[in-house]
Design brief:
By secondary structure, this protein is α+β, with helices and mostly antiparallel strands. 64% of the residues lie in helices and 9% in strands.
Amino acid sequence: MAASEKPVAVYGAIAANLLIAVAKFTAALFTGSSAMVSEGVHSLVDTGNQSLILLGIHRSRKPADDAHPYGYGKELYFWALIVAVVLFSLGGGISIYEGINHLRHPGDLGDPTWNYVVLAIAFVLEAAASYLALKALLAAAGEKSFWHALRSSKDPAVFTILAEDFAALAGIVVAFLGIYFGHLYGNPYLDGLASVVIGLILALVAVFLVYESRGLIIGESADVEVVRSVRELAQTDPDVQGVERPLTMHLGATRVLLNMRVVFKPGLAAADIPAALDRLEAGIRARHPQISHIFIDAGSLKTERAGAGLKSEALY
């Protein structure tokens, strides 16, 4: 089951980031740490972004209608793109601005105790949220490796949350190092530098999310292994002579459109074509249930056999 169908990871991430944002801003207020301000902005942006993912999940579940005959599944991809833009502009932009401002006008170093306490709590909460997202990713991936699963995932409710959670963990580590070494060496510039690095991390994650969302919005194919499996399944059918490259496109996190042209063997009777097509469709659905729409173009019959009631190319 995709995380977009049961978004436990999204709810967990929203709850964790909202609590973390409040704690970070409170610590920044009392300590004056630029890195903590950036981390507070980061967590606040993450909370808003995850709410946008929930909105996308809700809207993607709308049933198909005349205006959108394949449904609204791709709306989740649109909101994932908005999340990436927000993460880049607000998360990365504000963090870099805050860091540069602190480098230009460094303040006095305050007691870092509350910073350490909040960062430790934030790390635990972010790790828990990351675990939920990672669990959802690996459950959907089966036996694939983590990196293969992340790159091939078509569910923004998983890869977006996981990418943001990993960026949050990296940001917490950078903030801790900036605050710790800043106090260790009495250098307030390290705190501002940490804020800039946090902003750059968010910008890089945003670029990754833009790349992933773009491919899905413009019509990304199903995984190459799925396409190969579909073609092999059709080619091994006893009535099939040849198969052209299947054309696939993701309509949502767990819905795929398939168009395929097959050439049946010349000796196959016209009356047997519908049964062969039904068998092919049933086999494809059994092996790949995520393929929700199947269109098979039968191109085996010669034009002189059209009088039997079937055209030379019949969309089925």
